[in-house]
Amino acid sequence: MDVKDFYYDLPKELIAQDPLRDRSSSRLLALDRHTGRMEHRHFTDILDYLDPKDCLVINNTKVIPARLFGEKEGTQAKIEILLLKRRENDVWETLVKPGKKAKPGARIFFGGGMLTGEVTEVVEDGNRLVRFTYEGIFEEILDQLGQMPLPPYITHQLKDKERYQTVYAKYDGSAAAPTAGLHFTPELLGKVRAKGVRIAEVTLHVGLGTFRPVKVDQVQEHHMHSEYYELDEEAAGIINDTKRRGGRVICVGTTSCRTVESAAARMRQELEGMQKEGLPCREPAPMWVKPCRGWTDIFIYPGYQFQVLDALVTNFHLPESTLVMLVSALAGRELTLQAYGEAVKERYRFFSFGDAMLIV
Fold first, then answer.
1. CATH number of the domain to which 50 belongs
2. Which of 118, 133, 214, 333 could make an S-S bridge to 328, C-beta 3.0–4.6 Å?
3. Could you tell me the pTM of the whole model?
4. What is the b/e burial string over 234-272, where b = at least 16 CB atoms within 10 angstroms of the residue's CB?
């Protein structure tokens, strides 16, 4: 497959620069991938598409103020650092601009010396490992000095940083928000639960893949950056029970999708390993996922066979991005691009602060 096969034309004025005042008032394009039918609704209407047997899978990661601005020791050159993932307690993999001024050994001061970073190593794709020194608690210092890492296509200043967090964000670690979840309010989640729909919380800390464009010509040659995920016993129980009862597992966002599919792949690998060793591997009841945690670089594109996901809530994504490819794996490339064309025609708002799709 050619990456260009996932291109669509998007007028710049449709890129949402600011979040809506009311999260759940965004529009919703409901797409039936089996019939091709599309309906134009509002996000609160998602209740009409949910059944009491279903479960929603949400990603409870929390975006950290991961963008830091500092000065290089000696030259006072301006340096920008984006924290991507924690390697050790005080060592982070980072994206540094300009990278040429951040060679191993370079020291960068933030907040007048409140925080100091030393570049220790250049790793994959030119990222830098940075060791931080400070007095106090790192997270508290980061809250004081850091800025929310908005995507580059958002040029407006974010007035309320909580609008780049889901209302159910719990665990610090992401360099970008799981944006499909931004549409939910506590009231709407309450109505989801009142309908009998169960909610399974998983964690995937969104990393560099969100920012990196696909730089190869052929889709299969692209390599995803690994991201940390967790799926606990409670979430596994809800997902397995939903599947056994004939309900649908509806993932809120591509990160929730990648988490459950990674967990399913891991379980299959474990079962295959047990079979090769001649060990008994029958479960007392059918299972699709087990509790697990680790790193995933799963890349979902057309041809992929979903093991857990039945439906997806998602935003509208960048042309030729891995996220458009994931949506195309579920709905089909032609239908996906047709739906995107319909959204452009109907003047939907695109990307992180934009409107949503429900694919059933």
1. 3.40.1780.10
2. 333
3. 0.91
4. ebbebbbebbeeebbbbbbbbbbbbbbbbbbebbeeebe
Find the range with the poorest average confidence among 29-38, 128-137, 278-287, 351-360: 278-287
Token pair of 11 as six digits: 């007028």
- Amino acid at the residue 76: Q
Residue 153 · residue 211 · CB < 8 Å: no
Banded pLDDT at 207 (limits 50, 70, 90):
confident
Pairing between strand 115-122 and 107-110? Answer: antiparallel
C-alpha triplet 223, 228, 230: angle, nearest 5°: 130
Task: Give the DSSP letter string of 93-138.
Answer: EEEEESGGG--TT-EEEEGGGTEEEEEEEE-GGG-EEEEEEESS-H
Residue length of the chain: 360
d(CA 229, CA 251): 15
Instruction: State CA 356 to chain mean position distance.
Output: 14
The total of structural domains in the chain comes to: 2
Mean pLDDT of the chain: 93
Query: Tell me, what's the pLDDT at 272?
Result: 76
Please tell me whether residues 216 and 333 are part of one structural domain.
yes
